[in-house]
């Protein structure tokens, strides 16, 4: 694994660079899916060739992670399996297939943002401008409350055993919202400092 960012409280975001790193994270995703009753089937392993993985460690323990998938050679994203009528995304897009933390590490927005900021930095370097994901009505409200400018782009359907809608957002608009909130929020000032730090700084 490649360390991307460390905090003073012993949290660390890493990029999964070996098969062992990836397998450990997928097993965590499968564990969380089983606990939450998600029927992901083989979806967590279906996009390995187009996927990038980010892992969150707390005190040296794998606490969660994120799987980001680029469009296939045919221009499709994972969400097209459920919403085939959606238009193909532009090549500068990616899909957040899963973002999950073990139960004991949830409830801390800063840990959520540690993962997201490093994923966003990757997207900026790769010139990815839009991110897609599926959200339940509850998680849609949570993400919007956190400042993600999500646009619902399809009708509700069952996805992984839950009623979800497909959504997307513009990364530049989302980064602008982080900057706006940083004017009055210590948490968002830390997020902005992480997100906009100079390349090569951990």
Would you give an account of this structure?
The protein is an alpha+beta fold. It has a single domain, classed as Gcn5-related N-acetyltransferase (GNAT) (Aminopeptidase, 3-Layer(aba) Sandwich), CATH 3.40.630. The chain has five helices and nine strands; from the N terminus they run E-E-H-E-E-E-H-E-H-E-E-E-H-H. The protein has helices spanning 19-36, 109-125, 137-146, 171-182, 186-195; strands at 2-6, 11-15, 51-58, 61-69, 93-101, 130-135, 151-152, 157-159, 162-170. Helix 2 links the parallel strand 5 and strand 6. Helix 2 packs parallel to helix 5 and helix 4 (171-182) crosses helix 5. It starts with a strand and ends in a 7-residue tail after the last helix.
Please give the largest β-sheet.
9 strands, mixed
Percent helix:
25-40%
Corresponding CATH architecture: 3-Layer(aba) Sandwich
CATH topology: Aminopeptidase
Write down the domain tally.
1
Oligomer: single chain
| Overall spatial form | globular
In CATH, what is the homologous superfamily?
A: Gcn5-related N-acetyltransferase (GNAT)
Rounded to an integer in angstroms, the radius of gyration calculated over CA atoms is: 16 Å
In round numbers, the mean pLDDT is 91
Given the helix and strand composition, which structural class is it? alpha+beta
User: Which percent range describes the beta-strand content?
Assistant: 25-35%
**Terminal Cα span:** 14 Å
| CATH class label | Alpha Beta
The number of E-state strands comes to: 9
Low-pLDDT segments, ≥5 res: none
Q: Please provide the ordered H/E string of secondary-structure elements.
A: EEHEEEHEHEEEHH
* Count of helical stretches: 5
